[in-house]
Amino acid sequence: MTNIAARPEAPSPAEAQRRLKRAKKAALAAFLGGALEYYDFFIYATAASLIFSKIFFPSGDPTIALLASFATFGVAYVARPFGAVVFGHLGDKIGRKNTLVLTLVFMGAATFLIGVLPDFNTAGYWAPALLVLLRLMQGLSAGAETAGASALSTEEAPEGRRGFFASFAMSGISAGIVLASLAFLPVAAMSEADRLAWGWRIPFWLSIIVLIVAYLVRRSLDEPEVFEEKHDHGELVKLPFAKMFKTHPAQFFQVALMSFETVTNTFMQSFGLAYAVTVGVPASTMLWVSILGNILAIGTQPLMARLSDKLGRRPVFITGVLGSGAMIFVYFSVISTGNIPMIFLTSTLITAGTYAMSNAIYPAWFSELFNVKVRYSGMAIGLQVGILCAGFTPLLGTALVGADKANWGPAAWIVAGSSVLAIAGALWARETSKTPLRELGNPVQ
After folding, report:
1. Cys bridge to 370: 78, 334, 342, 378, which one at CB 3.0-4.6 A?
2. How far is residue 250's CA from residue 257's CA, in Å, rounded to a whole number?
3. Higher pLDDT residue, 360 or 229?
4. Other C-beta atoms lying within 10 Å of the C-beta of residue 310
């Protein structure tokens, strides 16, 4: 067992500067990777809400077609736990850097290929089948992206600032959502014929630009020193995911429960958009709503994470989840009335306020719950098992709400119930904000 009694001496100014430079580079790589991964992921969510039900499935009942479109959105969440197992294993065996490059390329390739798929009129049932296949590829990649970026950023961060540096993975996700929404604005302004014929493909093709930038940054990263120490001394375990279940079972379930906080964002980005369009709110308006909230969230999330470095992870996380669970009722209520200013206000308060409080904290907190030897696997698998349900909540919400435009209650209660589960996990998990990096997690032999 590693001796944790001895504490390292304070680094020299030159050494501190070197570590800070590495931390900033890791945070930038996490930001760019998150931007690409969730640009790709959320242009799919937008297309599933506005486009795919009309071109990839047989014509007929539009509600049934929308359900089918959301089902293809949800299958990626089934793939995510498998991606977490596979890439989590690689991340704990061969390193964070190479695994993160692999997940990046996997997602980028799948997204570009979606943009060249034939529609149902051209290829029949091959069209939705190929769409599902590529969506599964997206899910495999996304299953390990956030966990890997979070683990790397946490391990490179200076003591006392792990929350702040790890949060840039989440700010990258917000940037990706902004880019996805901006990419769809000109598409939404097209005539429906052009939009369905070729316009929807452009946002998928544009992902190649972000892919190239993120790839170049990630290829230049170093492995975190705390991981390299275990690698160089032959202390890595053969089957990290199996060892994680043996040594960190409670932490796994804590992360899975806390991951239900992501249901808020999933509902707002997919179901909320589709619901707003059905009650007469223009799709372009809802895209601007998303853009405003996420632009602000790029800045507020690091602030919230820095607050958790000072006050602790648990109180900030729980406050945010409680706020989101309550505000979602206001959000759907104002959408149902078509009150545009109130839609902007409530969405922004959630996205850049309450949701930012919980979302910015989990990259560091979830990583901190696990030992370095099983950290990638533990966070990836726990996170993805927890949010597996999130991918299908828009489908469930659409089915429960049905054709009644005033019946938004079931959707709001799904989010509220998910918030309760996330709070239960947070109350169970240990506080880790002040624990030294090498003392995190349970012992792993």
Report:
1. 378
2. 11
3. 360
4. 12
List domains and CATH numbers for the chain: 23-219+239-439 (1.20.1250.20)
Contact predicate 96/148, CB 8 Å: yes
Mean pLDDT of 311-337: 93
Query: Following CA atoms 19, 21, 22, 24 in sequence, which dihedral angle do they give, to the nearest 10 degrees?
Result: 120
Which whole number is the average pLDDT over 235-239?
Answer: 70
Q: How far apart are CA 329 and CA 354, in angstroms?
A: 14
> Is 272:397 a contact under the CB 8 Å cutoff?
no
Residue 349 has pLDDT above 90, yes or no: yes
